[in-house]
Amino acid sequence: MPKETWGQYNDTGPNRLNLTYRHSAANMAYVIRSSDPSDEVNATFIAYRNVSSSNGFNSTGHLFPGSSPVWSLKIAIAAEQTAGDYTYHIFIATFDPEGKPGLYQVRINLSGTIEGGSDWSQPAGNSAVPWMFFQVPEGTSWPVSVSDQLGRYSPFFFDTPIPTTHLNASLVIEPPGNSTGASKAVVRWNHTNGTTLLTRNPDIYYVGDGRWATKSVIEADNSTFPANYTHPYRVSVRMGTYEHSASFYVYPIYAAIRPNTWLTKSPPAITDNGTVEFEWIGSDLDGKVIAYEYRRDSGSWIETTDTERTYQLGNGTHRFEVRAKDDDGLLDPSPAFKDFVVKINSPPETQILQKPNATTDIRDVYFSWQGSDIDGTIASFEYRMDETPWIPTLSKNTTYLNMSSGSHRFEVRSVDNKGLRDPTPASYNFTISPSWCERELERLNLLIETLRERISDLEDSIADLEALLDDCENEKATLTRLVNDLNAEKAELESLVEDLEQDKRDLESENADLQAQLESCLEMNRTLQGVLAENEQLRIANDFLLGLIDQLRNRIDELEQQIPEVPTATLPPIAFAVAWLLSITARRRP
Q1: What is the topology classification, in CATH, of domain 257-342?
Q2: How far apart are CA 223 and CA 200, in angstroms?
Q3: Assigned CATH class of 349-433
Q4: Could you report the per-residue pLDDT of 273-298, keeping only the tens digit for each?
Q5: Are 282 and 261 a contacting pair, CB within 8 Å?
Q6: Which long-range contacts link 197-205 to residues 24+ away (Cβ below 8 Å)?
């Protein structure tokens, strides 16, 4: 906390902190240090107000017996930070007297592992403990409220970055009978010498619950209200028979109290962690903090409403700064800052100095190495052969005896004084050539393996041929059975053909007889046709003969259908003769 702010504490003289400022809320901060970071500390803020000669405090800050507080708040640690051998605990509290004018005193009492503060058992208090005074003037918010276009209270500034441009005077009353007796109010804005500068007649309007209100808004600047640090302006508001007034101040910019800023969390002066975090708070005794600006390493200021920031930084010296911005647009002229150095532990490096040839006949191999660390010292080493577990050692060399022939890989890595290992161990690949016996044994093993593979191939071929032979025998038996079946079928067909040929001959003989009878019948029909006209009985006989002819033809057709058709490709020559005779008979049919 800046020294000039600390000076407000324990100051019971005429220069006590006079909060004749815009907001009736007071922001209070208290810092205590302890030698043990684990100390648990709580702070109780207690506010007293001078009410009478028996309740409150006298001009020297001593409480009258039986005085009662108007406000009390017990809070835990708001923030803490360790620097050197001490841990600093900071407590932040805000007290709002709700616009009640008067002189207030705030005392602080501690509890927990660290106790102290005012001696509350003695109303006179303990003059060795901190207290502070502040004053809430008339006109801040009750009964006449005077504010600017942004809701800020006295004093007003016309030349700050966020200036006052309008003044608002309002009054709310609750008259008996629910009537003010007037529809217009009379508002007079008076100079510091009492003369009237402006007069306004705003409407009186009902706001509910038996209350009536009026409000006057005027433009304001230095030409109408020149800055006056010592004498207040005054506004009076009359609503019917009810009149109230309030005073307000117009200050030059140099009288404005600029905000203060504190870092509540920051890295130590030297840190090996690249992640750094900052937290901060701000206060403004004549207003409120509306934003902050921060920057790192002399970069551009960045505005924010946040109260924390985290960076990922590399090795080097850094500075972080933050400053509060109040509702006047004024900035903390002395930003809170922290200079610190990031020294992230760099990993060590390892180098192999002595090693065998890339290809060697020697079975005993020797390695030596060294390590380096740019920001520390080498504490130990770890080595291994062929991906086996790492072996810790303080030595810088090792020997492997009677190594087997073949390819090998040796690795070694350094470990620094902070336990960090070389992430890229030094490595070396080498091959130990086999001996004459190993080479001859390898040749014989290769030959045996080749012969075993050849034998396996021959066994596979024999198995394939035996399977093929079995398939051929099975096929031969199948074909033999098929030939026998065909020969038997052939004999049956030849016997059938002989039977069919005999049947054909019989049918052809019968067909010839029938043909002769048919000719006789036809001849007789012709004779009967000649005499049909002369004898009716001859006609009847003719019909009978025609019917008989049809019957004979049907019988012939039945006999022809009974003769089976045999494929000529499977019939002997006699079968072809039968077919030929049947076709001749068919052509001769009338």
Answers
A1: Immunoglobulin-like (2.60.40)
A2: 18
A3: mainly beta
A4: 889 999 999 988 777 899 999 999 98
A5: yes
A6: 197/224, 197/225, 198/224, 204/180, 204/239, 204/240
